[in-house]
Design a protein that fits this description.
The complex is a heterodimer of chains A (about 230) and B (about 400).
Chain A lengths: L3 E10 L6 E11 L4 E5 L6 H8 L7 E6 L2 E2 L5 H8 L2 E4 L11 H9 L7 H14 L15 H14 L4 E5 L7 H17 L3 E5 L11 E6 L2 E6 L1
Parallel strand pairs in A: 3-8, 3-9, 6-7, 7-8
Antiparallel strand pairs in A: 1-2, 1-4, 4-5, 9-10
Chain B lengths: L1 H5 L5 H7 L2 H31 L2 H5 L4 E4 L12 E2 H6 L6 E15 L6 E9 L9 H6 L8 E5 L9 H6 L5 E4 L2 E9 L10 E5 H7 L7 E2 L1 E6 L5 H11 L5 E4 H15 L2 H30 L1 H10 L3 H38 L7 H27 L8
Helix pairs in contact in B: 2-13, 3-11, 3-13, 3-14, 11-14, 13-14
Classes of the chains: A alpha/beta (about 230), B alpha+beta (about 400).
């Protein structure tokens, strides 16, 4: 099953004179396990495209189908169910400040159905080990460095066992070396899970981790680089 | 059991609340304060209504006669004593006790200041109190100029009880007549009467010589065992002229309580006070939950983006409200107990914690917190997961 199918997607914000087309005739697909980078200048519609695929916005015109589910005309409930199967990593880490690293990851694992509390906790611990934070499980986000926080966010996104991972500039708040480490970790773990990744970035130093690059400009997809 | 553990989640509401201990403490202080306010106001109100009938409850009577002009225990009017004697014509009436009832000026033997005290005059040979230990004591009143003093009276009447227990001869003046304390009883004060004394009819009339003879304020009627007071009351109402009101004992108690409930603003004031406490509590809890939700809005949005349902998150806010209610109630209850004790000690009013009030305030606090969390939830609906990118 194809992870993402986008076909002739249009999207606009505003009404009447204020109407602004942000996405125009976008079509592409992402295969399972594929790592795709989406680049382009600020304001070209990358994030809008990501939120549409992430079932966070309603599709206006065109086809978006994620993990076999069409999002065309999908209501609140259906979008919420689709989101459960998508992992999301944000520009800021967006961890819950009142929870420890382990509890934050478990908030992801808690979405798994039919698992006991203990096994969900073990799941969370195992993911923290996978991102190399076994010594920081009991720390709250405030006591973690930027790179560590982003790694917790990766563990949290993967703990829900997603088939698709969406990342919005995960390296934006990190220095180049840490950013590189985080992205490589992300790719390795996604590969192991055969989880497709769509990552928005305008950091050209990480282009080489991708299987494919998608370039956007003014709401249009420029070319697909293999 | 298995299902239960499967449902177990990270206690997010609890962790959100306890992340900022100072704010939590302020919130709890506010909720407790509101609870204490409600406890106090409702306690005073019920205490007042209870206290106004402490004496009434003690009477050995099934049916009570009073003047229709009487407004309350502190404004009793007289009616002809003949009316009480007429009730004996009813086959179900076993006996009657005429009672004189009025306020007198009691002179504090220590400071020599005068103060109004509620005096009850009756024939010591007639049954008067239900409680046999009280009834025994009335024997000493057969001697002229003797009174029984209510040791629960306010201290402004003088250290009568202490002196009496020390074995001293306690004498003072009422309206220029010398009286001697011949014993102590425990009746209790009310908002209307700061103190009580019991005496014989003879002494009572000596103390108030201007009273018209043949008039009494209260008539106690005792019925034969098994007689229905309601039926006797309706028979007596038909038989007796309109210059007297016939009430059951409960009717007499209600008459007194109704005066305080409806003819004075006391009930309204205290209920309003309790309502104010409720509103203050609502505002505090709402403020706390609203800022809490606003502060964590990006986090709630993140959870929604991860695939949590809006109802999951609403549940978090409801639980926060519930925890606040539970944690705020305990100190309010304890402080309420302490304050009741303090008020009892200072005012001698029968103010105490009872189960129904404890439950009322608990429900009020719970409603207050739930209502506030419902209002705070509206903020949560603003959380748009698409905005966090």
């Amino acid at each position: 099953m194809t992870a993402v199918v986008v076909d002739k997607l249009f999207h606009a914000f505003g009404q009447g004179e204020m109407r602004r087309e942000v996405l125009q005739n976008i079509s592409f697909t992402i295969e399972p396990g594929e790592v795709v980078l989406l680049t382009g200048p600020s304001g070209c519609g990358k994030t809008t495209l990501l939120t549409l695929i992430g079932a966070l916005r309603t599709v206006q015109q065109g086809q978006v189908s994620v993990l076999g589910q069409s999002l065309q005309g999908a209501g609140r409930r259906r979008r919420q169910q689709v989101r459960r199967r998508i992992g999301m990593i944000f520009q800021g880490h967006n961890l819950l400040r009142c929870l420890t690293a382990e509890q934050n990851v478990q908030m992801g694992a808690d979405l798994l159905p039919d698992l006991s509390y203990r096994s969900r906790r073990d799941e969370a611990r195992q993911w923290l080990r996978a991102v190399g934070l076994e010594d920081h499980m009991g720390k709250v986000p405030q006591d973690l460095s930027g790179g560590q926080k982003q790694r917790v966010a990766i563990a949290r996104a993967l703990a829900a066992n997603p088939r698709l991972l969406l990342a919005d500039e995960p390296t934006a708040a990190l220095d180049s070396r840490t950013g590189r480490e985080v992205v490589e970790l992300l790719r390795r773990l996604a590969r192991e899970q055969s989880c497709a990744v769509l990552m928005v970035t305008h950091d050209p130093r990480i282009d080489d981790v991708a299987d494919r690059l998608l370039q956007m400009e003014d709401g249009r997809l420029m070319n697909a680089v293999q | 059991m298995n299902r239960f553990w499967r449902g177990r989640r990270i206690p997010l509401s609890w962790l959100l609340l306890t992340r900022q201990p100072v704010r939590l403490l302020v919130a709890l202080a506010g909720i407790s304060f509101a609870g204490i306010l409600m406890f106090m106001q409702l306690g005073f109100r019920d205490g007042l209504f209870d206290a106004s009938v402490t004496v009434h409850r003690l009477f050995d009577a099934d049916v009570v006669l009073i003047s229709p002009r009487s407004a309350s225990s502190v404004r009793m009017a007289g009616f002809p004593r003949r009316r009480l004697v007429q009730t004996l014509a009813d086959p179900d009436v076993e006996g009657v006790t005429p009672v004189h009832w009025g306020l007198m000026l009691w002179r504090n033997p220590e400071t020599r200041r005068n103060r109004a005290i509620l005096a009850l005059g009756f024939n010591p040979d007639d049954p008067f109190f239900v409680d046999p230990t009280l009834a025994e004591k009335t024997d000493v009143l057969k001697q002229k100029g003797r009174i029984l003093f209510d040791q629960l009276s306010r201290p402004e009447f003088g250290p009568i009880a202490d002196w009496y227990r020390d074995g001293r001869v306690v004498e003072t003046e009422i309206a220029g007549n010398r009286v001697r304390v011949a014993g102590l009883v425990s009746l209790g004060t009310s908002f209307g009467a700061d103190g009580n004394l019991l005496t014989s009819t003879e002494t009572f009339l000596d103390l108030l010589p201007q009273k018209p003879p043949g008039a009494i304020e209260v008539g106690l009627v005792r019925l034969t065992p098994g007689a229905d007071p309601e039926q006797v009351v309706s028979r007596l109402r038909k038989r007796l002229p309109k210059d007297v009101s016939v009430l059951t004992k409960q009717g007499f108690i209600d008459f007194e309580q109704n005066y305080w409930k409806s003819s004075t603003s006391i009930g309204f004031i205290f209920t309003l006070g309790a309502a104010m406490g409720f509103v203050v509590g609502c505002v505090i809890v709402y403020q706390v939950l609203y800022t809490d939700v606003s502060d964590h809005l990006p986090e709630y949005a993140t959870l929604m983006a991860m695939g949590y349902r809006l109802s999951n998150l609403l549940g978090v806010v409801v639980r926060e409200g519930f925890y606040l209610a539970a944690m705020g109630y305990v100190p309010a209850y304890l402080a309420g107990q302490g304050l009741y004790w303090f008020v009892r000690d200072a005012t001698k009013l029968p103010v105490g914690m009872d189960l129904s009030r404890a439950l009322t305030v608990m429900v009020m606090i719970l409603v207050m917190c739930m209502l506030s969390s419902l209002l705070a939830m509206r903020r949560l609906i603003d959380a748009d997961p698409a905005e966090i990118f």
